[in-house]
Amino acid sequence: MDVQHGSGNSLEHAANHVTDRITHNPNVEEGAMTRSVENQTAKVPSLGYFNLAVGSMVLSATTTLVLGKRDLGNFFGLWAPCFLLIGIYNKLVKMEHELQPGRG
User: Fold this and answer.
1) What is the number of domains present in the chain?
2) Domain that holds residue 25
3) Which of 33, 76, 81, 100 is the most buried (most CB within 10 A)?
């Protein structure tokens, strides 16, 4: 697959190609647990995950700088990438459901 830089159409074509390969693979079946998790995370708006990530950063900075507990601050700070990753997963699942005919 050739993706040319500077061309939005090529990127869109590449994204559609990847989506088609993932969503139209007859060998891939999702279990009930996966569907359940996706249904629950879809209820939370994408901005919610972003707010959780920012909140964990603020909590981390406060714990480290104000309370002087560096290890606990690092622990809270490590939550931010997790929340952002869950938010991205949530967004991808929503996009996948919108693209599939008969679902959404």
Assistant:
1) 2
2) 1-30
3) 76
